[in-house]
Amino acid sequence: DAEITQSPRHKITETGRQVTLACHQTWNHNNMFWYRQDLGHGLRLIHYSYGVQDTNKGEVSDGYSVSRSNTEDLPLTLESAASSQTSVYFCASSGPGQGATEAFFGQGTRLTVV
Amino acid sequence: GQNIDQPTEMTATEGAIVQINCTYQTSGFNGLFWYQQHAGEAPTFLSYNVLDGLEEKGRFSSFLSRSKGYSYLLLKELQMKDSASYLCAVRADPTNAGKSTFGDGTTLTVKP
After folding, report:
1. CA–CA separation, B87 vs A42, rounded Å?
2. Arithmetic mean of pLDDT over chain A
3. Distance from CA of A16 to the nearest CA of B (A)
4. Is the pLDDT of residue A74 over 70?
5. pLDDT cut 90: percent of chain A above it
6. Considering only CB atoms, which chain A residues are within 8 Å of B97?
7. Are B72 and B65 in contact (CB under 8 A)?
8. For a FRET experiment, which of A52, A83, B21, B47 has its CA 20 to 30 Å from that of B85?
9. B31 touches chain A (CB under 8 A)
10. Regions of chain B with pLDDT less than 70
């Protein structure tokens, strides 16, 4: 079965370190997204990609970057981790077009910056 | 800008019916989604409305009024496993489903 997987599931890092969170999907979807979810809140869009070599900033992109070198993967990099980036990060993918009626989410990565 | 409002918490009794409301003010509209999220898990898709009216899917129904910027999710015959957070999300971009703006979610507690 097709799926979307994130790794690691849990990560503790120190302030100032660079951290990369992995996201891999086997749906063959063009569209991939990174959201963060803080306690008691909904999902906020960090970055998204509509295809290989395409990346776009979301509403909370400062301090984060992504790259899309193939269809399956969209790694999220925190350039210099800050305590404010402690959160749960969700990767998602969806098919193109108005016929796409849902996004599929990974299981999330819980990141703690100390 | 985008603004989506949902109640923070709701409590209901097993076997009952509960309605979770969502109001939105967004710069564009191309569909409204409801997702269910159990604690510590990923959101999973429940429903999608793009035209006015009611969409029914088993015990779950979702309603949309575009002119009022309003939607609700109706859960019937509540079960304990329905205790979860319910996220309302609006898609402004017509080209894909994932680029949506989410509300903060409504935490539903189902009691025996």
Report:
1. 7
2. 92
3. 27
4. yes
5. 78
6. 31, 94-95, 100-103
7. no
8. A83
9. yes
10. 1, 95-98
